[in-house]
Write a structure and sequence with these properties.
single chain, 525 residues, alpha+beta, Cholesterol Oxidase, domain 2, 2 domains, eight-stranded mixed sheet, binds flavin-adenine dinucleotide
């Protein structure tokens, strides 16, 4: 094995956006770092060889123009985790490798209202971390090198609709705080006409350093503990062999397996509700002896954005690209444009993103609508209930080592249900106003739209950060330095620690928090 015992200052578990960013920061600070990722590399540079027939440097996943259809690629199924609840990706880059690339710069209020993010994690504290991220991985609302936007039929129709309602056009990158009755061209995680994200914008920097090891196809089973000290991790290698990799003296383990997988690592390590640790033990994991168990509320507090699907017949004519022709190379018009860095294939799925909010009993709830063309003249609006939602669920474990949703995180409170209904009803009224000429399709009324609820795939909260120590009846699993309560050298930096949901798609916030968390960890002597 390439794994060196007693060598690493940091073992980072999980090569998703949070894990790659944290690992790179630890390397930058002069440490010896191992990044362990259970999946394969998705880019040519990281070992992928299923490239496009017309470009041997790019996989279909890299091409922005195919991201709208990413869910129908064979690679997508290959990359999805098969042992987690909900949706997560088990591939280097995590969810960012297979997602729809919507890149929402978070507004300050995401951290400053509702009192969920603790002191030290308000926007004024996070802004410098965001700036560091945006410098490397800025996102764009104009990806085509020629400065043109392609396929703008939907944007024209919907901007006319929203203008009539008095909504305002904004640039969601330069005006992130504008989140009431606004619409924007979509911001995408695209750089140099390719899917961006930490695999491209952080990992190459880490890989230049000899003190950095990346181990792919290696699944961490648990951390190895001696009381409150982590001494190493147990890893199942690509070869099928299981090994324990020990830390250097004063080394640290940093979990970044994602909000749906980090809890499993904690349960397997004797950290979490008793019931979950017992299940881990029954499934054959070597959990510590019971006197070492730390009964923290891991998995409790699972959150996500629910999605409600609205389809509108608008009379326009949009259509969707011919994905087969892009893959087999016969769409020479778009492919030739792309070869110059231009055109439809440089863009993601959506053509417009809107935001708004409503208030109920003094609580503001936000909504995002991601609008994309469907076949013919129908457009689809993926409507999310976002920041301000008050529902929480529970993530647990089954005896086969799958994480499972024990209680749904969606629409658990009467106020969430009432507020979401009121927002959707207003939108339906506006859409159905005879002056628009629009007609609802598929889900024909508010009740049907609400019943279409599906996962937003923006999971958080399963190892929540906060000052109320979970070992003393509080709700938090990690402290404000992201260290697990009761442990000396175990940290978490992924979506699990977010104590709140953002107003928009979450990946940007995941990356900002990982930047900030790595800085906090490095500052702990
Ligand atoms: C289908 C889909 C579409 C999405 N669309 C968008 C979008 O358009 N915009 C947006 O902002 N967000 C989107 N998201 C959400 C976003 O991608 C995730 O929130 C984000 O990737 C979470 O980052 P993370 O680092 O916390 O965890 P993850 O991305 O889940 O990364 C965790 C990593 O850890 C690895 N891992 C897990 N367990 C182990 C283990 N035991 N040992 C070793 N490695 C392990 C995994 O393989 C993975 O690489 C989408 C998510 C999905 C699933």
């Amino acid at each position: 094995s390439s794994l060196k015992n007693g060598y690493y200052d940091y073992i980072v578990v999980g090569g998703g956006p949070a894990g790659i960013i944290a690992a790179e920061k630890f390397i930058e600070a002069g440490n010896k770092v191992l990044l362990v990722e259970r999946g394969v590399g998705p880019t040519v540079a990281t070992g992928a060889n299923e490239t496009l027939v017309w470009n041997k440097d790019l996989t279909p996943i890299d091409l922005p123009g195919l991201s709208a259809d990413v869910g129908s690629l064979d690679l997508w199924d290959e990359y999805l985790c098969s042992d987690t609840a909900g949706y997560a990706a088990c591939v280097l880059g995590g969810g960012v490798t297979i997602n729809y690339m919507v890149f929402v710069h978070p507004p300050a209020h995401d951290f400053d209202d509702n009192n969920n993010w603790p002191e030290g994690w308000k926007w004024k504290d996070l802004k410098s971390a965001a700036d560091r991220l945006y410098k490397r991985n800025p996102g764009t609302i104009l990806p085509s090198a020629d400065g043109k936007r392609y396929d703008q039929g939907l944007y024209k129709v919907l901007s006319r609709f929203f203008n009539k309602l008095g909504w305002k056009s904004v640039d969601m990158i330069t005006q992130p705080d504008e989140k009431y009755q606004v619409y924007s061209y979509p911001a995408w995680n695209i750089k140099d006409q390719k899917r961006a994200g930490p695999v491209r914008t952080y990992l190459p920097e880490a890989e230049k350093n000899e003190s950095f090891d990346l181990n792919l196809g290696a699944k961490v089973i648990r951390v190895v503990r001696s009381g409150s000290q982590v001494t190493g991790v147990e890893v199942k290698l690509a070869s099928g062999k299981t090994e324990i990799v020990s830390l250097a003296d004063n080394g640290r383990v940093v979990l970044a397996a994602g909000a749906l997988s980090t809890p499993r690592l904690l349960f397997n390590s004797g950290i979490g509700p008793k019931k979950q640790i017992e299940t881990a033990k029954m499934s054959g994991i070597t959990v510590p002896s019971e006197k070492e168990w730390l009964e923290l509320p891991v998995g409790v507090g699972l959150r996500d954005h629910p999605i409600f699907s609205i389809y509108v017949e608008t009379g326009g004519n949009y259509g969707v690209p011919d994905y087969d022709a892009i893959i087999n190379g016969s769409d020479t018009t778009d492919i030739n444009l792309y070869k110059n860095g231009d055109g439809l294939l440089t863009q993601g799925k959506h053509r417009m993103i809107f935001f708004s909010s409503n208030e109920l009993h003094g609580q503001t709830r936000y909504y995002q609508g991601s609008c994309a063309p469907n076949a013919g003249s129908v457009l689809g609006i993926t409507t999310y209930l976002t920041h301000g939602s008050t529902s929480q669920g529970v993530l647990g474990l089954d005896s086969n080592q799958n994480t499972v949703i024990e209680k749904s995180p969606y629409m658990q409170t009467a106020d969430d249900r009432r507020a979401a209904r009121s927002f959707i009803q207003q939108l339906v009224n506006d859409i159905q106003n005879p002056s628009t000429g629009f007609k609802l399709e598929t889900n024909l009324n508010t009740t049907a739209i609400l019943a279409s609820q599906s996962p937003g795939m923006h999971y958080t909260g399963t190892a929540k950060m906060g000052t109320d120590n979970g070992l003393e009846n509080g709700t938090s699993v990690v402290d404000v330095n992201t260290k697990v309560y009761g442990m000396d050298n175990l940290y978490v930096v992924d979506g699990s620690i977010h104590p709140d949901l953002p107003t928009g798609n979450i990946q940007t916030t995941i990356m900002i928090i990982a930047e900030a968390a790595a800085a906090r960890i490095l500052a702990q002597k």
